[in-house]
Amino acid sequence: MKEKEIQENMNKSIEATQRNFNTIRTGRANASLLDRVSVDYYGAETPIKSLATISTIDSQTISIQPFDISCLQAIEKSISMSDLGITPNNDGKVIRINVPPLTEERRKEFCKLASKYAEEGKVALRNIRRDAVDKEKKDEKDGLISIDESRDNQSEIQKITDKYIALIETKLSEKEKEILKV
Q: What family name appears in the similarity comment?
């Protein structure tokens, strides 16, 4: 694996981890809270953002205006059944969600969830490293590169991995501060 390819794969893992972080509630209204909520729409699981305009009215309120009013009940049901712990208010045209402040206990749960997402991201990075190192060892065994080249490349791969793991740790720290901020 080339260094550029390794970094591209690791960047994808970082982006996936960030998307996971964005779905965690922080006590402030944020449209990305609903990214993981899907609606059973004509027999197919469809993301809410494909069915409606989602906007934040203020720091505590999210507004969902469906493109098709007939899916209003389905959207409301999906939000109610999600693990977000928020209750939608349906006025017949628009769904409003008041995002209540988080309790201390709920904040700790979300910090654990953020840690879990960070760990999943680190595992993905380590898998990319393992694949790259295995390729280096195979190339060395096949005589395509020298032992010294292989060791240098493996050392470089480890440095890249360490850099990306530190980036995930930084993002986790930022997310935890955001969650714990009252």
A: Belongs to the RRF family.
